[in-house]
Each structure stands twice: as C-alpha cells, then as structure tokens.
Specification:
single chain, about 260 residues, alpha/beta, TIM Barrel, eight-stranded parallel beta barrel, 8 strands, about 40% helix, binds 2-phosphoglycolic acid
Length: about 260
C-alpha cells in the first residue's frame, strides 16, 4: 500500500488583510514550519499572497491561490492567471470550490479548463466537489460527485493525475458546524478513489490525496483523518486562527 502524505490546507476565503495574514502565517511557521510529515498549505485572498509568501519563506509551509482564470493573461478584468500565482510563489490553487460554483456560476466545464491550465503551469489544483443538502436528501450524492469528478478531470493525463488534490466538501457541511459523519465522508472518499481508479488506473488512484472539507476542526479531525481514504482537510473557519489550524496539522501528523 502506498502511504499518502496528509495535506492540511487553509482556505481563508475573503478574510485577512495582508498584514493580518502575515501575522497568521508567521505563527503557523513558528509552530509547524519545520515539520515535513504533513503538507501544510495556506490559501490567502490574492491581495494577501505576497505578504504570506514573505512570511513563509524558508519554511515548509506552502502557498495557494483560491481561484484563477484558465487563460494565462489577457482582457479579463478582475481575473488573474496561473503565471501570476506562480510569480508570487504559489504552488497550489483551489479550483471549483462550492462558493465559486454557487455564487459565481462556475460550471464543471469551466472548472475543467482551470484544472488543465493549473497543471500546464505546474500548479497543483485542489479540486473541490460535493453535493448540496437537497441532493443528499434526494439520494443523488454519489451521482452528483461522479459527474463533478468525471467532468472536472476530463483530459487530465495519467502522468499528471497524482498532482491533483481532490477535496470532497459536502456543501451542507461548509461553514455550518454540521460535519459529515466519518461513515458518510469515508463512503464518498472511497467512491471517489474508485472513480479515479476507473479514470486513471489503480496505482494512480492510490497516489491521489482526497481531502475532506466542511466544518473540520480539532475536535472532529482525528476521527475523520483516521479513515482509510481521507488524506487531509481543506479548512475554512478553523484556518483563520493559528491555534486551531496548527492543531489540525498536529492531528494529521499523529495519524499512522
Ligand atoms: P469550513 O469551510 O471549514 O468553514 O466549513 C471549508 C471550505 O469551504 O473549504
């Protein structure tokens, strides 16, 4: 069995000025910046990337964007491209977050273009999927997730697939305090691993990290992270404070 390195990624969403973000990153670096058991990623808003990059310089903490355009540059007012993220030392980018899908109308097709563009520019996509409450109650969770995974990863080569990090985030659990049960989460994670096996072969699927997201916090993380197909977390609320974020990294490092 391949041992997948766990990932704890902080999605700050539309929070923190550059100065506040730098303070948070410095605190994270002081606590877990040297360890290498867990991949730690912080994703500030675009305006905070530069100060975060400076604050994490020389540490093992990595930087990610929260979105990007699929074109590298051009007449796309208000957007930014992958080379701009790279120029600020970002190595990761969150794509297809449910807030992008629901508030900004992002479709599977658009997200797919972004995934391909990220890979072309040596950025690791943190590619998000997940069902709404209505979809779960209608019994269509697996079908919804299947469509999102298949369309979102269309055209990704077997060689590059292990670079992708998938984040399963049930929409009803995001920012609501309602966490999926470990059984609910593991069921979908296992299903996604199965899909990846069909799309890319078993050895490739075994290398892909699949994160859980949705009200993950120090109290519920150990149990979630102990599940066979849960390889880390994409953290919103609990990533805005060094203490809780660092505790999540520690919880991930403790899983054997
Ligand atoms: P949450 O957000 O941890 O605040 O639920 C997770 C996310 O949206 O990535």
């Amino acid at each position: 069995m391949i041992l997948r390195k766990k990932v704890i990624a902080g999605n700050w969403k539309m929070n923190k000025t550059p100065a506040d973000g730098a303070v948070l990153v410095r605190d994270i670096v002081a606590a877990v910046g040297k360890q290498s058991d867990v991949d730690v990623v912080v994703c500030p808003p675009f305006t905070g990337l530069e100060s975060a990059a400076k604050a994490l310089d020389g540490s093992n903490v990595k930087l990610g964007g929260q979105n990007m355009h699929f074109e590298a540059n051009g007449a796309f007012t208000g957007e930014i491209g992958a080379p701009m993220l790279r120029a600020l030392f970002a190595t990761h980018v969150i794509l297809g977050h449910s807030e992008r899908r629901s508030y900004f109308g992002e479709t599977d097709e658009l997200i797919n273009k972004k995934v391909l563009a990220a890979l072309k520019n040596q950025l690791r996509p943190i590619f998000c999927v997940g069902e709404t409450l209505a979809e779960r109650e209608a019994g269509s969770t697996l079908k919804v997730v299947q469509t999102q995974v298949e369309r979102g990863l269309e055209g990704v080569s077997k060689d590059l697939a292990p670079t992708v990090i998938v984040a399963y985030e049930p929409v009803w659990a995001i920012g609501t305090g309602k966490v999926a049960t470990t059984a609910q989460a593991q069921e979908v994670h296992g299903f996604i691993r199965g899909l990846l096996t069909k799309l890319f072969t078993e050895p490739v699927a075994q290398k892909v990290r699949i994160l859980y997201g949705g009200s993950m916090k120090p109290a519920n993380a150990p149990e979630l992270l102990a599940q066979k197909d849960i390889d880390g977390g994409l953290i919103g609320g609990a990533s805005l404070e060094a203490r809780s974020f660092v505790e999540l990294v520690t919880a991930a490092a403790a899983v054997k």
